[in-house]
Amino acid sequence: MLTRIDHIGIACFDLDKTVEFYRSTYGFEVFHSEVNEEQGVREAMLKINETSDGGASYLQLLEPTREDSTVAKWLAKNGEGVHHIAFGTADVDAEAAGIKEKGVRVLYEEPRRGSMGSRITFLHPKDCHGVLTELVTSAPVESSEH
Amino acid sequence: MLTRIDHIGIACFDLDKTVEFYRSTYGFEVFHSEVNEEQGVREAMLKINETSDGGASYLQLLEPTREDSTVAKWLAKNGEGVHHIAFGTADVDAEAAGIKEKGVRVLYEEPRRGSMGSRITFLHPKDCHGVLTELVTSAPVESSEH
């Protein structure tokens, strides 16, 4: 079961400038930041609200760290904007397996490491009406990641 | 103050097929549907979770009702995908005024009618790092809209 909008992933050319835009315009603060070498991104998570399943919804601002990363290629084609959306679930493995059985392409064989120690996978946008869709299971004790 | 991710607006060519995709793939059900003649869209709201400010987060699926609507033009250029994101606030008028003062273009002189009797405005995507951004104040008694 998918129980929340976990985050909206937004690709940008300059993470610091984009973080500053969201801070000065809306008052959103950085909750967490990290570099994900596997994904080739530097990212900032801005927590917007908590959710009824005990989790939270974030904006995830993404700047590519290398030209061959997926996000770098996406930015070169599309410019800045919404790159993906992510739904939270207690069990990303079971959700991915169930969705795969329905004929939707799951992009990873096994979930990989996402923001704040989460486990994530992606669904092919062409099978999701044009929306690159991520499934996320948060790390067990999210508060230790602050 | 913006207190939640209110919704993610997703443009599609065929609302019924897209609703069915979200139902059969994820189990998301239609919470509300309507036609907004002013915006030139037929839409379905899928409620994903409730939020810590007393509101909720939705997916808003949008099909254009006429070729000259903003969403129709966007679809012709981009194909299906995420069209905009929306933040919820208790006071869209005050938020829009404050954001305008910071030099971000607000697209409406006065907020207009959005989904479920809400009041909405939009911010220019070129001033928001490529993201068409909506501000929403829900109707006072949202439960009466079910």
TrEMBL record, chains A, B:
Database matches in SUPFAM superfamilies: Glyoxalase/Bleomycin resistance protein/Dihydroxybiphenyl dioxygenase (SSF54593)
Name the record gives this protein: Methylmalonyl-CoA epimerase
Matching Pfam families: Glyoxalase_4
Domain of life: Bacteria
Keyword Isomerase: yes
InterPro entries assigned to the protein according to its UniProt record, in alphabetical order: Glyas_Bleomycin-R_OHBP_Dase, MeMalonyl-CoA_epimerase, MMCE/EMCE_epimerase, VOC_core
GO process annotations (BP): L-methylmalonyl-CoA metabolic process
Family per similarity comment: Belongs to the methylmalonyl-CoA epimerase family.
A GO molecular-function annotation: methylmalonyl-CoA epimerase activity
Domain VOC: 4-138
Enzyme Commission number(s) from the entry: 5.1.99.1
EC supergroup of this enzyme: isomerase
Native organism: Actinospica acidiphila
Entry keyword set: Isomerase, Metal-binding
Keyword Isomerase: yes
Gene assigned in the entry: mce
